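#onboarding

Welcome to the new folks! Below is a worked example of what a typical request in this channel looks like: someone posts a single protein sequence, and someone else replies with the predicted structure as tokens. Don't worry about understanding the tokens yet, we'll cover that in week two.

Example request:
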Amino acid sequence: MTAPASTISLEGVGYGYPAWAKNERPVPVLWDVELELGPGLVVVTGDSGSGKSTLLRVCNGLVPHFHGGRFWGRATVCGMDVVSTPTRVLARHVGFVFQEPEIGFVRGTVEREVSFGPENLGLPSARIRRLVADALEQVGVTALAGRRIRTLSGGERQRVALAAALAADPAVLVMDEPTSQLDDDGTRALTATLGRLAADGRTVVVAEHRLGRFSGADRTLCTADAGVAELEHPLAPERPLLPPPRALAPEAGAWALHGATVGLPGRPLVSEVDVAGCAGEVVVITGANGSGKTTLLRTIAGLVPPLSGRLERRPGRVAYLPQEPGVLLHRPTVRAEVEQTLRWTGTPGRADEVLGLLGLTAIADRDPRDLSVGQRQRAALAAVLAGGPKLALLDEPTRGMDGAARRSLAGALRALADAGAAVVLATHDEELADELAERVLHLDGGALRSRALAGGS
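Example response:
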């Protein structure tokens, strides 16, 4: 499908979510935005909560059709007026990949999910099969075709969501933080695929905090103060300084796996694991998508028993942050989430201390469901880390976070470790690993191995 010269056009577009429309928020998310986008690769960056996701959702009509609120100005995509065109019609031209891809899945297996779009277009069966096979191959998940969605890792789900969007052959492809859970190979494959799509004349719009991953973009936009500005020379963030190594008492064991095989029944992922962690130590686990990072974390947490071998853990509260932070957030405000944890744990202190440490003071009284993914991630972190857990297990904790939020997270985790907690992170974020880790453990080919820190520390 070929995109016209000006695929996306915003003329004086402004938008406020329903709470703002009722005068419950001081400013809208977008204000009188003027923007013209044609074929090519466009990267949108900006702080968490600055309007990146909102801008992207204008492109497929979720804003305002799904979210409601107040919308003004004129937005057209592929020549169609966003306000007057039903989202089901826009969806035929705009492929959209959510920052949390699991919310967009409607079928049980990978192949069925990827075929959903072309089937709804009423295409012939033979063409559907070709489109599905091509889409799976483009994003490198052909081997996953028969797998059930629920068995996939976060990174694998992101790639499947992209394949599902590509199978409908859209003129416009919009992706919200698509590399947040991808390993290095997955990121390289994704950027190569998007580059090819842009070169073929499609309009590809990507929201991303880490601009170095899309250094070949045709344009870079930044959302701030409810507006959208062009960045002529975007700068890659500086890598953090490595912390000095800390001496840890060998007797301060916090957790250990002895001769363990880790995985799900009938599907072992990692064998003969002998590893332990100390109080006050930050351990980072890396590895390719699907290598077993999440399952290893869940095993240490006691949520999944080892298939063989045994787990040892010292007494004390265990805090676990899953990849989907929304499953932890049920209270009416961010502050209420933290206060609930403090009550449950019987911990003295005020929620404001935890909120301030993670840079959440300004949004403490907001409903977590109204936050951006990065803000919601920090809210979930505040909720699980409040009360001083003895063991903190965090799965992709920087998902959707901007630079300031990542620095706040690093500071909070370092303070937690300094207070005597054992911290274990599963992440693809190499900079976070360099900044925090005393040890890096790498999953590869069903084995867990120690990996040298950058800089030789």
